[in-house]
Amino acid sequence: MSVRALIVDDSPVVRRVIRYHVAIYGVRGIDEAENALQALSLFRENKPNLTTLDLMMPESKGVGSRELFDAIKKEAPDTAILIVSAIPYEKVRETFVSDGALDYIVKPFNQISFDRARRKLGRIFPEFSFARNR
Q1: Nearest to 54 by CA among 42, 66, 40
Q2: 121 CB contacts (<8 Å, ≥6 apart)?
Q3: Between the CA of residue 24 and those of 18, 27, 38, 44, what are the distances in Å?
Q4: Is pLDDT at 4 greater than 60 in this prediction?
Q5: How far apart (Å, rounded) are the C-alpha atoms in residues 8 and 32?
Q6: Which pLDDT band, with edges at 50, 70 and 90, does 37 fall under?
Q7: CA atoms of 17 and 75, how far apart (whole Å)
Q8: Over pLDDT 70: what percentage of the chain?
Q9: How many domains are contained in the chain?
Q10: I want to staple 80 with a disulfide (CB 3.0 to 4.6 A). Which of 62, 89, 102, 123 is the partner?
Q11: What range defines the domain where residue 106 resides?
């Protein structure tokens, strides 16, 4: 199975960094959204099986990060959601992980912090864990 990803973050710089981290593991179908409303449209159109989600984005027409997270879990519960957020609070992390997020990475992150998530992604997408050696 080919991994398709959707990167959701209002910062173009952060989207570029996340794109780099998923691309080095072989993900080639990568879409980007700068807000949750745009992401919801791209999600429904392209059906990614991996979504990275920033929690600190302005809402657009009443759709924020939480609403996007809930919609993805409802419409495609098998989609891996990786939270990438500047919110460092353990309670927020625990809430999203218990609600079905695969992992929670606090910004700024580096290769080491992303590797923990990569190992989890590798259990879901075997091609993801070995792609770095290509």
Answers
A1: 66
A2: 25, 50, 80, 82, 102, 128, 129
A3: 10, 7, 25, 25
A4: yes
A5: 6
A6: very high
A7: 28
A8: 95
A9: 1
A10: 102
A11: 4-133
Neighbours of 98 (CB within 10 A): 8
Q: How distant, in Å, are the alpha carbons of 43, 51, 71, 74, 94 from that of 106?
A: 23, 16, 23, 25, 13
Count Cα neighbours of 48 within 13 Å in the Cβ-side half-sphere: 25
In which band, very low, low, confident or very high, does the pLDDT at 83 lie, cut at 50, 70 and 90? Answer: very high
Q: Assess whether pLDDT exceeds 60 at residue 106.
A: yes
| % pLDDT > 90, the chain | 67
Across the strands, what pairs with 58?
none
User: What CATH number does the domain containing 38 carry?
Assistant: 3.40.50.2300
Task: For residue 108, give Cα distances in angstroms to 54, 87, 121.
Answer: 12, 10, 20
Q: Collapsing DSSP states into helix, strand and coil, what is residue 64? A: coil
